[in-house]
Fold PAS domain-containing protein.
Amino acid sequence: MALSLLLILFNKKIPVLILSIMRILLMAICDMFFIPYCLTFFIVYKYSSKPNVYVEEYANSVPSELVSFGGFGPILSIITICVLIIITCFYEACSYEIRHNTESKISDNKISPNTSLLARVVYLINCYMVTNFQLTNYEAFLLVSLIMYAVLVFYSIFYVPYYSTFMNFIKVYLHVDCFCICLFFYSAYKLDNCGISIVLALTGQIVLVPVVYYAIQFRFSKVLPLYQSIDKSFAMFELSIRHNLETGDLDEELIVHMNFNHELNKNNFNILTQAYYCANKLDNFSLGLNKISTISYTGLNIFLNFQLFKCKKTLYELCYEDSSTLRLYKYFSSLKTTITMDKDFCEIYNKFLSKILEKNQSLSILKDLVDNLVIKMQKIRKMYKGILNEFPNATDAKELYGTFLLNILIDHDKGQYYLARITESSTNYNRRNSGRGLRMGAERCFAIVSADKKTFGSILFYNKNFVNFLGHSPEMIKETNMFYIIPPPLDVIHKKFIEKHLLNSTDNVLFDVTPLYLMDFEGFIVECMVSCECVSSNDGVCFIYSIDPIRFKNRQSAFINLNGYILSHTKNFAGALGVNQKFIQGRFVQEFLGSYQVPEFSINSTYCIRTNTHLSLVLQNILTLVVKEIIFHNEKFYILYLSDNEKEVKKWEIDSTLFYKSETCGPETTGESKQKSPTKKRKVELLNEKTPDSILGKQDKLPKGLKHSSASSSASVLNLDESKAIQKSIKVLNVAKIVAFVSILILIISNIIILVYISQEVNHANSLTALNDLGNLAYSISQSILILRSFDKGLRLNMKNFYTQSRFEDIINDLKLLEENLVNDYDSWAYCPASKIVKENLISYWELETVPVLRFSNLRDIVNMIIQRAEFVNMKILRNETDYDKELFFLVVNCMGASFRKTVKALDELNMCELLRVEKLGVMRTYLFLAAVGILGCAYGFLTLYFLTIDKHLNTIWEYLRLRVHKSYFDIKQNIKERLINYHNMPEIFDNELDSNLYKNSVPLKYWHSLRFLLRFSILFIFAAIFYIIIAFVFYESIRINLYYRPILISTIVKRKVDMTEITFFTLENEITNTSISLKNLFPNFISLKTEKEISHDIYNFIIDTRKVFRNDNIYNLMSNQLKIYIYESISNSSSFIKLGTFRALAYLVQEAIFIVDNNIDDHIQELEDFCTDVIEYNDVVKITSAMADRDSKDFINSKLHGLIYFTSTCCLFFLVLYAVYYYPLLRSKIILLKRLTKLFVIIPSPTFTVLSKFSQSLNKNNAN
């Protein structure tokens, strides 16, 4: 739907596939699945508002969590249901078809959507009741449903909206079935017997079929006949005429009845039905369009308005194909729009000529004027050509376009061609009979009159012939009503007829080729043949008058009544009667005819009379007169014709059919009977009755007023210097487009390269896999000897073990996995010197042979030996054997001695390597940024140098243009003034003094075009600089700081965990220092320089020192909220010592260890067991927090990296969009401006060669200087 709205917004046609998909979706949502959708969202509303265990409306114990959306649920449900209601209303308004047809017996066409809307309302209320109080008040639910379906059944049967009996039956059957089911369930509820409802519901389906069918037939039998229902509402009247609408057997008579019903009961559906009836049954699309156009589809009644819109659009398209009247209306409408644009062009052209000669010319104003000029010129050409292609006999359009080409655009060849076609069309038209109506003709007059209530009778459009025929000026025509130019009493009769026609028309033709008189500007009548049709368009209803003047008749006429009273007459009527007055209306003809009385005259009979009887017989004039009867709107009127010309009188007697036809040439007039034209001549006469010798003709073959002025004596072309300047400027701007694009491309590519490099380094620095594995390896090594030593003490001292066998197995498995991971991930930390311990024999270890022996090996082999010896010792202990002293010595000395220390040292060195790598990353980032900025600076410098060269070329072009205007200024201005006065009815403005001042004070043009371009392109580089600053000081700096402190956080947590294991080991060893199984007694030949107590104090001091790491703000920022809670605040479901977080728990444990070491007493075994239990719990929790710290800090840095990627991608896209939306259109507009200047050069006459040569020499001299 959003795609469709976008297509409509940009005036694009929606593809058929999209329309089909939308129809299917709307039908599914608003019709097929309307009830399920309503139920679903009512359930969401209910169970989001209050917590429930199960959805009560379903029997299968559906959990309410599936439909619960929390506080957002009710809002979502209400909004969705409201949107569904609105969409359903629009669907019902747009989907139903109101046309009556008999093509299909199962058609779903209907007169109104009211029944469907009422059904949707019933369904919606039922859905609400089902979900909200069906279970709480079942009886009320059934009663309300019963009443609603009863109303729906009555409404469906009473109005039977569908034209198809089958569709009416189906819809009524469904509603009756629902009504009966509600009734059956209510009966069962009251009788407390569900079997009754089931039996009735099953058997009732068959019984309802004939009941519903006969109910519909009964309703149709009660429909009133047409004449009895004509005063009823349209809903009832439509039932009476539905058969006639479908068959069309009453033809136009049905329109009369429907008009009468509409007068009594105003209902726009009546007019809509009439429109479709006229189109489908009477095949009169124009009449249907006229009917529908009398209604405006404004307001909120979408059910009627959409049908009106659809009907009008359909009929307009059908009418336009066949209706010459509608096409004629389009011609005048298009011509008026084109003339308005023609006038705007002349005014802008006039303004441009003045602006370019001013001293302080504004370049932006000149550019806007050039753009407007050329765009309007192209549009005007296109519009005139379109009009002439569709209406080739349109003389007005040919005249306007021809003179526009000839005198304004200096295209005299094409201008002469179109002007020559005017006289050609006139000659061709005069060779054939004018015939009916509403076709174009050289002498035919047209006027389009408004039928709108506010502007009723106003003349909307007219052609030149209409103005010339009546002699009115265009200013007068704008303020003249059509009824003012129809002589009384015809005007009143005609106005009443039109008003009645709009209401009760059965045809769109008011009258066709009827003799009629119109009043000219002096108040005399002029004779013509008039046709009038009603036409509808998108602007409303109007009337088109086609007027054929009856010319070259040597006769005079008067409009009289039966008593001879002169209502109006022609200009020379009084003179023909020998009366020395101008106007004699209001007098009787008998005053001038002697003994003749008008009532004695027979219609169409000729009579001879003498005038001036008081003079001698020689001076008396013999007149022949005839009285003609004309019928206008069923009213009879009489015209008295007089003539003193024998040839004219003979034509009356020979062929009466020629009486109302114009002659092909002017009459031979002499004396007082000479007929003068009542029309005023325009300042430029444009019609020529002679056919040109050729289509193009020669200039002297044109009428005098059409010869082009001195400014257009020859076609204007670009000279060599002008052409070169424009080509060079276009080339510079094209290269500027490429340079600007390359600059942006370099900016994007450099940023992508920097981003890829930074991302790879960040991902590597952020992984810390080796650091984690090495720390966990140190922890597992220390745990292995702690557990095995506990097993050993238990066996030797017969005491309880503090650790379980499964914990030992987990540690051994961890050692195996970590040993494998260190080898597999070796490449990730091979850059660090500390990695050598994995493969090189750099770690010292001790073996107990006869005496302790020092050897060297790599970390992998030592770990393997630890695993083997630990498994061996554990196996011996499980067998209650104690012959494992050598293996125990290896484990104790190496897991808590040199090998272990070397591993911990490697952990510190790896941490330093990571920190150095981060610092190196920052340095490399700086170098990359400097390189990118340097490249951008070079690009901007190149653009600067390149744009500096454009001033010369562009200033040359503008100066050439100024010279052209300066040379031909007065000639062009005169042409424009003449056109504005003669064709656009503008008053003459005398500004010769102003023009002379501009002409004298004109100075050369000089602009800093390069500065304008550089200022605009500096925006791009300012954005780039801001971009780099944000990236460097916001994103990269934040990532660098977090990368720096992440390994510190991870290594500190791991080392605190390892140190806790160490202090636990030596605390327990201190307790048995005086026993036979103490380390100094087991291995007297290998004594440590420090005692267990001293080592414990050293570890304690180190743990205390690590506290400051956790107080660092940067470390704190790396932690997630959950991790902060675990470390600093509380841990649920844990022992009391650790409830306040691992930070305080470790402080408690080390204090406990130091207390045990320093109390100088043998602690109870239970105290030691409690201490070990707390340490085990602490280690388990720290294992979680360690993984959480690693994951959360990594995710935090990754989120920063993703933010950097998104920001960089957005900025790169912004730069591309900036180029596509701003810089490319900017440069393209400048190129288009140059091309438009080329077109402007063509319509401005070029100066002489001498002037251009001097200007070129002066430019070369300036450039040399």
